Amino acid sequence: MVMAKEKKESGYKFFKLLSGLVVQILKDNGLKSKEGDIGWDLEKEMTRKQKRIVGMYKRYSRILKTIDQLNTVAKLLAVKPSVYFTNTVQIEYSKYLEYNLEIYYIRFTSIVDQAILLVSEFYDLGTDPKQTNLRTLTCNMHTKGKDATAILKKFDKLIQPIKRVRN
User: Fold this and answer.
1) Cα 12–Cα 18–Cα 24 angle in degrees, nearest 5
2) How far is CA 12 from the centre of its chain?
3) Rounded CA gap, 93 and 143, in Å?
4) Burial label, 26 (beta-carbon count in 10 A; 0-12, 13-18, 19+)
5) End-to-end alpha carbon distance in the chain
6) Closest CA to 151 of 143, 141, 161
7) Within 13 Å, how many C-alpha atoms sit on residue 131's CB side?
8) What is the pTM of this model?
9) DSSP 8-state class, residue 125
């Protein structure tokens, strides 16, 4: 229980640090993001190091968003839609479950892929995101044997049954 709390706090500290760096990058460049979005027009004016930090921020934000979506789907699955909803929208309960379970499986397994890209960007491997996978991390001299890679390998092993169901 203590380890889980420590990991949660260290994750929060990492995100807080990353957010602070992004804010500083925006200030240093005199750039203002529109509604928190750091678009291509802003990134093209940044240095390589700044783009890397912003990229990590975006990747970490996507992981948090995916976790939030998983929580939402879990809540939707726990609630059976009302008869009014079912009759008005004309969605059968089985279709409702199927749709939400598909989303859950897809989002759940995508967390590993998103985390792999975050680790790759954190270690500045310079690999193409489309070519980056867990094997890339386990074979790379900069990430081989690192805690992040070991955790991803364990998580990937745990979700293999879910991937089989998803596929």
Assistant:
1) 135
2) 14
3) 46
4) middle
5) 34
6) 143
7) 4
8) 0.73
9) -
Q: Which amino acid is at 108?
A: F
For the record, the structure tokens of 129 come out as: 């995101």
- In the chain, where does DSSP find H-type helix? 2-28, 40-43, 48-78, 83-89, 93-122, 134-139, 147-158, 160-166
Tokens, residue 18 = 């990353």
Q: Residue 104 in contact with residue 70, Cβ under 8 Å?
A: yes
Work out the number of other CB atoms within 10 angstroms of the CB of residue 60. Answer: 20
Contact 117, 55 (CB under 8 A): no
Each residue's pLDDT tens digit, 93-151:
888 888 888 898 899 889 999 999 999 988 888 888 899 999 999 999 999 988 889 99
